[in-house]
Design brief:
heterodimer, A: mainly alpha, Serine Threonine Protein Phosphatase 5, Tetratricopeptide repeat, two-stranded antiparallel sheet, 20 helices, B: Phage tail protein beta-alpha-beta fold, Immunoglobulin-like, 5-stranded mixed β-sheet, 16 helices, globular
């Protein structure tokens, strides 16, 4: 028989007594590194494509269907998770600024902790501003009473606050950690994400300066092999400025993945690269496919930028234990393990739901995806050095300050794709263009080739204001097998019965091809411009009279 | 036996009454001596007033003094004192008055008649008077109900009568053995009802209490007590969730919703709180009472806001010995299952859907090509592997699930020890492979009488439940949505890959099992002291231990190609892709400690009872779990056999406690005016020290109008009582530590030496609401109990109003504060309702029948909540009803492009065939030309059931018994959305009833105007399938709940094998329903089963 009603949690500490010593504050800061807060727009197993890089058969996300409302769960979760991280950062900042903490922890250490917390707050607010424009801003712990009446703060004010946080972080975070130490955020991370935010907000001066400062830290180098950079076996590359690791052993994983695994290997092959993406890769002469003499629609993987076949599985090449071949006549295909021909289920003749456009993803995928019950552990790359270089270039191009540093930043990224030194200008299509419009187009194509399926494309098309174009036309695929054989294969037109033109933003236009009836309109996308800013969640508006919705919703 | 009767008659009594009704005098003596009198209502030919002035004399002396002048005799039978008229009015004064005639007094007769008088249960009734009609000659039955009498000739008519039974007349004829069964008289008023910490006579109740007895459970044969309560009483709403069929739980709500938190009633078994009603073996239940209003429930104060269910289990009586065994066997079968389109039509509809979304012109085969569709069924015949047409539900679900049960009970009672022990074992199969349920109940209730002062009880119960389920995810749902175009099995019988590994049929069969074992051991030790007359002090200690475990062993199942048994195709999806073992164990411990003092006193016309009590409760739960993954073999489901690299474990614990002081006073004046007051003071560990204690008073009163003089001279109303009550109740079930902002731990990964290492993280995820405290419900109840026509017709009505204040509510707080919605004391909710019960019991010759009907209605309205809570398609906000539907107002289906162009829309992607919504408002309070979730959704009516009813009809004739139960809901606004879903998860099947009722580009204009559902679309799915009034329909239903037919073999036959009673029965449950749901859907959800059982019981 017990005697007390004063029962406290047995298995969890109470928040009242937390944040009182250094260890507890560290644990609170650790929480800001959880993957929940660092989901990007599209990740490696995402089926929710927001951009024109990928698609899920005939299903569209509300962004692409133009049906976004304030009840879209993706934006609601985006909002919620961002603010959860902010609330936790704010809670830690309040604790760090308390006299109790100050009496216990040295100022030098305190500054680093504070820098870390403010970095996270800035990064989360930056994500929210990018998506929602004006947001509710608070740098303290909001009481519930106040929360019912707080409205959104002008984006300009928020941007200033975000910059202040980033700048404090940049000033106080270390350049690097010793290999034996726990690797937390650094000055470079703060610079890189500040540059990204500035760029997204069209503040090109700030973006260029931050990117330049990051480059000048000399902490990062490009990974030698573009193809292996994204494999789950590649950890903590010198190219990666900031990432959140995953680990099978530590039980933080992705999966089970099936949507990107080919059907011959027991997957769904349901999310695939678009033809749009495929046709955006330059040829090895540095020209777009509509201009390059090296391009052959009968053999579209030939003479393309190496990142093309590193991203999309080339026909006839081994992939996940089989030769990949969607050709309707390839009813059987070689299984590598037994060296025998087996039914080809990556072919729509045999399998209704094999890739609808013949393409399947390769980037980051290798045979190890089939192990461990299809759980995978690729690190979540938040930002990598190639992005810093291209952001620098883009900001400078937009400022029309095109100089050697711009070209060398772009060429460094491209040369790495060809696995050659940037100085070996004969071994890759070196960029020499200095016309702003032309270089802008090259940069946009370069970004698309480099960052395909890394969750960056959506914000690219949004800030370039081309979503209204690229997300307002059909997603195309192959004709159904019988038609395909009759109209395309038997006529000798496999794979592409035509070549799309590439417009000034580097995006392919298939409308002429579609008119021939030799390709299939899988599903039309129908972007509406109100979606350039996402809607504030319904509940926020309904319970708070001062919360205003974005225009158009 | 005689000693006991003597003990009873020697009890000392003090009675001072003056000029009171005889009946009052008896009642007073009853209370004083703690004995029970039974007598016929017409015991006295004319009402008599009596005066007694007795101090501390023995009961026998008192009775002699009282009864002799009235020519009434008494007899002690089974601890009761039976009063009957001395049929000696015309007899010589010299006859002994203990017996009318001696059994052997046969000198004036020449035919010997003997036999046994028994009740409906076949048990002999002692003390029955057997009189030769028209004479004063007769006898009384012996201990086994046997009698022996001589009658003058065959024309003699014997009259059998006994208090509490309906008298019976039988002509002797040429029989010498005359066995008679007496039917019970309606004694509803004498029924004892279990109330908090005690019992009360039904006629003395001042609160709203419904109760049912063992018969209901005997008849309904439900596995779970909760399911057996459906439709049994007014004001008790039982909602079942399909899925587990007859093994499933059902939620119970008493008088609608009182709180937004946990609306489950508090369940008390033999005075001890337990987690839910299903912890009890239905066969063990003697009585189940539902305390519906605050006055009756407030003795349980803090946790009684949602009502209280009191269960008492069967106990043995003195001089009782029996052994009973029963066996039953039967099966469950789904009440209904929806039909889905076959492969060909599925593909056509998929094409229509894709065409709707893609709008790709003339090609109306966007998903499945024309070639594929042509002659598909023929292709399926010749090559089913390539062209499957799978009936997933048909393959996976069994039509019947077998069940059986054995029950044994042994009862024995002596003066010192009374013992009742029972065992029940039951086994129920599932609808699909690898699903079953079995359960063992053991209970032993023992009462000890040490001496006049000291007694006690020692009870013990054990329950073990095993459940087995496949690891496959939600098989009922998966089989329902699985599209027919995927193969379940290859033509050669091997497992096929289904939809790229999603093959619910094979996963269910071969994918491993998830087993739970629940063990519960409960005990209750009570020591009762009766130190002085009228006072009983009890100390009770009741621990309950739970030891539960789970073993989930998911088996990896690899699928190989149809044409090549060596070509790996996929591993089956659903529940995990690897062979993995999860073992979890958790144990709970609770201890209830009670001290109770009951005191009763009669002073003149005034009766008092008082209760004082103290209760302490402590609960602790601890759990641990471990797992390993990627087993190489699926034959050794033990942790040791798995690879260490993929092991994991966890553990946690929590505890709660509360302490209570409570008391009750009742006062009755001449059984006419009744008043009762309760108070309880509770402290809960869930709240902060300063907000921990709550006080919950109640008061109730009753006026027995029929006791008034002006009601005496009529025969229509036999009993009439008016009741009124007021009281407050509390609720605190809101998680374990709501006043503490708990730090929630997690892990984040960092690089160290280029390796991902895990670091612990901590975050506060909820506001600490320090001043969180009791939720308080006050309720007012006005009730009427009326019995007519000598109690044949019974009517009870209650109207009530409940108001919950400081409601514990997880209001929607602004999302941007970054914390979860916390529970707060905010908000008011008012529930008004009525409960009606009507019953009729009568006999026609040997036919005994009864009928009862109950009806309840409530309406819960939200007051000022201080905010809003969104619950999917429902809302709780100021002025709304509880969980009111919240959505758009539909204006039908768009029929023309022009209409689309000129109407406000949710998005630009709205097309002809989609739903059109009304533009209600906008940011400025006026319609803004756009449809938006913020401004254009409105309240669409209560989602709660209206006019719930239940009814029961019983019939008894020459050993044949028939029972029929109905149950239903008069009206309920229900959403059609779950029943009209198609293309679920972007591939799912299409229900048959959508076909032809859906707007389609292939339809004529006329057909589209008549379409019941908007066009098929995936892109605009959310748009059309948001909640709007378009989707609401009347989901009320009528159900034939149960039919039971039994036959009890006459005792004259069963006696030959020494058996006391043998009964055979068949029973059917959930036989059919009438409703407006789409075809194939049971109104209570998928997985509701009809149960048919046959069984027998034998008693010795």
């Amino acid at each position: 028989c017990q005697n007390s009603l004063d029962l406290y949690p047995l298995a969890q500490p109470s928040a009242e007594k937390w944040y009182s010593n250094e260890t507890e504050i560290q644990l609170a800061l650790n929480d800001l590194y959880r993957l929940e807060w660092w989901q990007w727009d599209e990740d490696n197993t995402s089926v929710n494509y927001l951009s024109d890089d990928g698609f899920y058969r005939q299903a569209l996300t509300p962004i692409k269907a133009g049906t976004v409302t304030s009840q879209w769960d993706f934006s609601t979760n985006f909002w919620r998770n961002g603010y959860k991280a902010i609330a936790r950062a704010n809670r830690a900042i309040v604790a760090l600024n308390s006299t109790e903490t100050k009496s216990k922890v040295s100022q030098a250490k305190l500054d680093v902790y504070l820098a870390e917390a403010r970095f996270h707050r800035a990064a989360q607010y930056a994500k929210l501003v990018d998506k929602f424009g004006d947001v509710v801003y608070s740098d303290g712990v909001v009481s519930i009473e106040d929360a019912y009446t707080i409205g959104r703060t002008d984006k300009k004010t928020v941007i200033t606050k975000i910059y202040e946080d980033f700048d404090f972080a940049i000033a106080n975070l270390p350049d690097a950690y010793a290999a034996t130490a726990i690797k937390r955020v650094t000055k470079g991370v703060a610079l890189a994400l500040k540059a990204r935010f500035a760029l997204y907000q069209q503040d090109f001066t700030t973006a260029a300066a931050a990117a330049k400062a990051c480059i000048d830290l000399n902490q990062y180098t490009l990974h030698p092999d573009y193809g292996t950079l994204f494999l789950q076996s590649t950890k903590n590359s010198k190219e990666v400025v900031f990432s959140i690791p995953r680990s099978l052993e530590q039980k933080i994983t992705l999966g089970p993945t099936s949507d990107k695994i080919t059907r011959n290997s027991g997957g769904f092959a349901a999310t695939n690269p678009t033809w749009d993406l495929f046709c955006s890769y330059l040829c090895t002469d540095g020209k777009t496919i509509d201009k390059s003499p090296l391009y052959d629609p009968r053999n579209p993987f030939k003479n393309r930028d190496p990142r093309c076949t590193a991203t999309i599985v080339e026909f006839g090449q081994p992939h996940l234990g089989f030769i990949y071949d969607p050709h309707p006549n390839a009813v059987q295909v070689l299984r590598l393990s037994s060296n025998s021909m087996v039914t080809n289920n990556d072919n729509r003749v045999n399998a209704q739901f094999a890739s609808f456009n013949g393409l399947v993803w390769k980037k980051g995928i290798d045979d190890s995806w089939l192990l461990n019950g299809r759980l995978i552990e690729p690190e979540q790359i938040i930002i990598r050095y190639a992005d810093v270089l291209l952001m620098y270039a883009e900001a400078k191009i937009e400022l029309n300050q095109i100089d050697e540093s711009v070209l060398s930043a772009m060429n460094a990224v491209r040369a790495r794709a060809y696995k050659v030194a940037a100085s070996a200008t004969t071994l890759y299509p070196v960029i020499t263009e200095t016309n702003q419009a032309e270089l802008r187009k090259l940069l946009r194509i370069e970004r698309r080739m480099e960052f395909a399926n890394e969750g960056l494309r959506y914000m690219d098309i949004v800030r370039w204001k081309i979503a209204g174009k690229v997300l307002n036309r059909p997603i195309y695929g192959m004709l159904d097998p019988i038609d395909l054989k009759a109209k395309v294969v038997d006529k000798g037109l496999w794979f592409f019965a035509g070549t799309p033109t590439i417009d000034e933003d580097g995006t392919p236009d298939f409308s002429a091809m579609a008119a021939t009836g030799l390709i299939k309109n899988l599903v039309p996308t129908a972007w509406t411009d109100r979606q350039y800013l996402w809607p504030v969640p319904t509940a926020e508006i309904q319970i708070n009279p001062n919360m205003k919705q974005n225009a158009g919703y | 036996k005689d000693a006991e009767a003597q003990e009873l008659l020697n009890r000392k009594v003090s009675v001072q009454i003056e000029n009171r009704n005889f009946e009052d005098a008896i009642t007073i003596i009853e209370k004083q001596a703690d004995v029970k009198f039974t007598y016929r209502s017409k015991l006295l030919e004319v009402p008599q007033k009596v005066t007694l002035n007795i101090v501390n004399q023995s009961l026998s002396q008192v009775l002699d003094k009282l009864l002799r002048p009235l020519k009434i005799k008494y007899k002690v039978v089974n601890n009761q004192i039976i009063l009957s008229r001395l049929i000696t009015l015309a007899l010589p004064e010299t006859l002994p008055n203990t017996l009318v005639y001696s059994p052997n007094d046969n000198n004036i007769a020449d035919i010997g008649v003997k036999g046994v008088v028994s009740d409906e249960k076949g048990e002999g009734i002692p003390g029955v008077s057997v009189i030769i009609k028209g004479t004063t000659k007769g006898t009384v039955t012996g201990i086994n109900g046997d009698y022996n009498l001589s009658v003058p000739d065959g024309n003699a008519i014997l009259v059998f009568s006994f208090v509490g039974y309906q008298p019976k007349e039988v002509t002797v004829g040429n029989q010498t053995t005359l066995n008679v069964t007496l039917a019970t008289d309606t004694k509803a008023l004498e029924e004892v009802v279990v109330v908090g910490y005690g019992v009360q006579k039904k006629k003395d109740l001042t609160g709203a209490v419904s109760s049912i007895n063992a018969d209901v459970f005997k008849e309904r044969k439900e596995t779970q007590v909760s399911q057996a309560l459906q439709g049994a009483m007014s004001g008790v709403m039982v909602s079942r969730s399909g899925g587990n069929g007859s093994m499933g739980n059902a939620s119970i709500q008493i008088r609608g919703v009182t709180t937004i938190g946990d609306s489950n009633p508090l369940v008390i078994v033999d005075g001890v709180p337990v987690s839910d009603v299903n912890q009890v073996n239905p066969n063990d239940i003697e009585n189940l009472s539902v305390l519906k209003d605050a006055a009756s429930a407030s003795i349980y104060g803090s946790r009684a806001a949602a009502g209280v269910i009191l269960i008492t289990t069967k106990r043995a009586k003195t001089d009782q010995a029996s052994f009973n065994y029963s066996y039953e066997r039967g099966f469950d079968t789904p009440t209904q299952l929806p039909d889905y389109m076959g492969a060909q039509r599925y593909m056509e509809l998929q094409n229509e859907l894709r065409w709707n979304d893609a709008g790709n012109g003339a090609n109306k085969f966007p998903a499945f090509s024309q070639d594929l569709l042509t002659d598909y069924n023929q292709k399926h015949q010749t090559n089913p592997d390539r062209y499957p047409d799978t009936n997933w539900m048909g393959m996976t679900l069994n039509n019947m699930a077998q069940r059986e049960a054995h029950s044994v009970s042994v009862v024995g009672g002596s003066k010192f020890v009374k013992s009742n022990a029972s065992v029940r074992y039951e086994k129920i199969g599932g609808f699909y492979e690898n699903k079953n349920y079995n359960r063992v109940f053991v209970r032993s209730n023992n009462d000890f009488t040490i001496n006049k002062i000291v007694g006690g009880t020692v009870d013990f119960n054990f329950k073990r439940t095993n459940t087995v389920d496949p690891t496959a995810d939600n098989p009922l749902y998966r089989t329902r949505i699985a599209a027919p175009i995927y193969p379940a099995l290859w033509a050669d019988g091997r497992i096929a890959d289904g939809k790229a590994g999603e093959n619910v049929y094979a996963k269910v069969r071969y994918g491993g099992t998830n087993r739970y074992t629940y063990n519960q051991i409960g005990g209750r030790i009570a020591l009762d002291l009766k130190p002085i007359e009228g006072l009983k002090i009890s100390g009770i200690l009741a621990p309950i231990f739970d030891f539960n475990d789970q073993k989930r062993f998911n088996k990896r199942v690899d699928v190989y190609a149809a044409d090549d048994p060596n070509q790996f195709v996929a591993s089956l999806i659903g529940g995990g892709l690897t062979t993995r073992l999860d073992e979890n164990r958790w144990s709970n411990y609770s201890l209830t400690t009670q001290f109770l003092a009951n005191y009763g006193k009669t002073i003149g016309k005034h009766d008092f009872t008082a209760l004082l009590g103290y209760e302490n409760y402590y609960y602790k739960s601890e759990s641990i779990g471990a797992s390993r993954d990627q087993y190489l073999f699926d034959t050794y489901p033990y942790l040791d056999q798995g690879p260490t690299a993929f092991r994991d474990n966890y553990g946690t614990a929590f505890e709660t406690a509360y302490r209570s002081y409570f008391g009750r006073l009742t006062y009755s004046f001449q059984d006419r005016y009744l008043i009762q007051a309760n108070i309880r003071r509770d402290g809960s560990s869930r709240f902060n020290k300063d907000y921990r204690w709550g006080t919950f008073p109640s008061i109730s009163a009753g006026w027995v109008v029929s006791e008034e003089g002006f009601m005496r001279n009529q025969n229509l109303i036999s009993f009439l009582k008016l009741r009124a009550s007021w009281g407050t109740l509390g609720n605190e079930r809101i998680g374990n530590y709501p006043s503490v902002g708990i730090m929630s731990f997690n892990n984040a990964l960092f690089y160290q030496n280029n390796v991902a290492v895990s670091q612990q993280t901590a975050a506060q995820v909820q506001y600490a609401i320090k001043d969180i405290s009791w939720e308080k419900t006050s309720s007012v109840d006005l009730g009427l109990d009326a019995y007519f026509l000598k109690n044949k017709l019974r009517f009870t009505a209650d109207v009530y109003r409940k108001e919950t204040k400081d409601m514990l509510l997880a209001l929607q707080i602004p999302i941007f504060v970054g914390f979860e919605n916390p529970n707060q004391n905010t908000g008011i909710m008012t529930t008004k309702g009525i409960d009606l019960d009507l019953g009729w019991t009568s006999t026609v010759g040997k036919l005994r029948y009864s009928a009862s009907f109950n009806l309840s209605q409530f309406r819960s309205e939200m007051g000022d909540l201080g905010g809003t809570e969104f619950i999917g398609d429902k809302i709780r906000r100021n002025g709304s009803q509880f969980d009111e539907w919240y959505g758009y107002i539909s204006q039908g289906i768009y029929q023309t492009q022009e209409d689309v162009n000129n109407s406000p829309k949710l998005s630009n992607n709205v097309k002809v065939g989609d739903l059109k919504y009304a533009d209600i408002s906008g940011p400025n309070g006026v319609p803004d030309g756009k449809i938006s979730p913020e401004y254009d959704r409105v309240l669409l009516g209560s989602s709660q059931p209206q006019w719930m009813y239940g009814g029961n009809f019983k019939l008894d004739y020459r050993g044949i018994d028939l029972g029929i139960t109905i149950q239903g809901i008069g009206y309920q606004r229900t959403s059609l959305l779950p029943y009209t879903d198609y293309n679920a998860e972007n591939f799912g099947a299409f229900p048959v009833y959508l076909d032809g009722n859906t707007w389609s580009m292939n339809n004529t204009e006329q057909q589209n105007l008549a379409a019941k559902y908007p066009r098929y679309t995936e892109t605009n799915r959310a748009l059309n399938r948001s909640l709007s009034d378009f989707w609401l329909f009347n989901g009320g239903y009528f159900r034939l709940k149960n039919v039971t037919l039994g036959y009890t073999i006459p005792q004259s036959i069963t006696k030959r094998i020494m058996a006391n009673s043998i009964r055979f029965y068949v029973t059917g449950t959930d036989i059919f329903s009438l409703n407006k749901y789409p075809k194939g859907w049971d109104p209570e959800g998928l997985g509701i089963v009809s149960t048919y059982i046959g069984g027998f019981s034998i008693g010795f």
